[in-house]
Write a structure and sequence with these properties.
97 residues, two-stranded antiparallel ribbon, 8% strand
Length: 97
């Protein structure tokens, strides 16, 4: 019989992180497959070109509707995407509650 190593205790099964903008909470899709897709987008395309595709992967349609209604500037829109991605990879711990 082959050796079996149970790594369950070494994995994190946390829920998706949530960001709050103007009192609206939006859940960030944090699964590994999605993040790898996003990383590939930014590696193969320009930042602006990849932004919409990343946005659609990071947020559900319902949460995108909330964000779209805020009419964010391009700079703020890119900041939302950047912060969401950083939360997923564990680089943005500020603002945690």
């Amino acid at each position: 019989m082959a050796k079996v190593v149970d790594i369950t205790d070494k994995l994190s099964f946390d829920q998706n992180p949530t960001i709050e903008i103007k009192g609206q909470q939006c859940e960030v899709n944090a699964d590994a497959r999605s993040m790898l897709e996003i990383m590939g987008l930014f590696a193969n395309k320009g930042q602006a070109e990849s932004a919409i595709e990343a946005y659609e992967i990071l947020f559900s349609e319902k949460d995108r509707e909330k964000i779209d209604k805020m009419n964010l500037s391009f700079k703020d829109f890119m900041k939302v995407i950047e912060i969401a991605m950083n939360m997923v990879v564990g680089e943005d711990e500020q603002g945690e509650q």
